[in-house]
C-alpha cells in the first residue's frame, strides 16, 4: 500500500493536498458504490438492467474497497498494517474469546443451530 500512497502523494494536485486525508476517505464511498452496483448486477436485482455483472466483478470491486481503505489508512497513519492487524485482533477477540472455536461460539449463540454454509 505504501507504494500506492506514495504514487498518489506525488500525483496529488496542489489544490487537493491540504485535504488529502478527506479525499482518500471519501474515495472509499465511491468504491463502495461500485460494489453495490456490481452486487445488484450479479443478482439481477434491477429489472431494467438484468444480470449485468458477475460475482467476479463483485470480488474485484470488494478488493478495490479494501485497497482504497488501506491507502486512506496509510495516509492517516504511518503504521497502517499494524493498525489494521491490531483492529482485526480486537474484533476477533470480541466475537471469539481465546480458547473457543467458532462452531462452539455459534452453537451457544444460536441454540445449537448448524453453522452458516460458506
- SS summary, helix count: 6
Helix content range of the residues, please?
A: over 70%
| Measured distance between first and last alpha carbons | 29 Å
Q: Helix-strand pattern, N to C? A: HHHHHH
General description of the model:
With 118 residues, the chain is mostly helical. The chain is 72% helix and 0% strand. It contains 6 helices and no strands. Helix 3 packs antiparallel against helix 4. The mean pLDDT is 89.
Give a nutshell description of this structure.
The protein has 118 residues and is an all-alpha fold. 72% of the residues lie in helices and 0% in strands.
Give a quick set of tags describing it.
118 residues, mainly alpha, 72% helix, 0% strand
How do the helices and strands line up, and which of them pair or pack?
Layout: H1 2-11, H2 14-17, H3 20-43, H4 55-76, H5 80-95, H6 102-110
Amino acid at each position: 500500500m505504501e507504494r500506492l500512497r506514495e504514487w498518489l502523494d506525488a500525483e496529488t494536485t496542489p489544490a487537493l493536498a491540504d485535504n488529502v486525508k478527506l479525499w482518500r476517505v471519501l474515495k472509499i464511498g465511491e468504491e463502495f458504490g461500485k460494489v453495490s452496483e456490481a452486487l445488484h448486477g450479479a443478482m439481477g436485482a434491477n429489472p431494467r438492467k438484468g444480470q449485468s455483472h458477475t460475482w467476479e466483478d463483485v470480488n474485484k470491486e470488494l478488493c478495490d474497497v479494501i485497497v482504497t481503505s488501506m491507502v486512506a489508512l496509510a495516509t492517516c497513519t504511518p503504521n497502517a498494517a499494524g493498525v489494521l492487524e491490531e483492529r482485526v485482533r480486537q474484533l476477533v477477540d470480541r466475537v471469539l474469546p481465546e480458547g473457543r472455536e467458532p462452531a462452539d461460539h455459534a452453537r451457544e449463540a444460536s441454540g445449537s443451530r448448524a453453522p452458516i454454509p460458506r
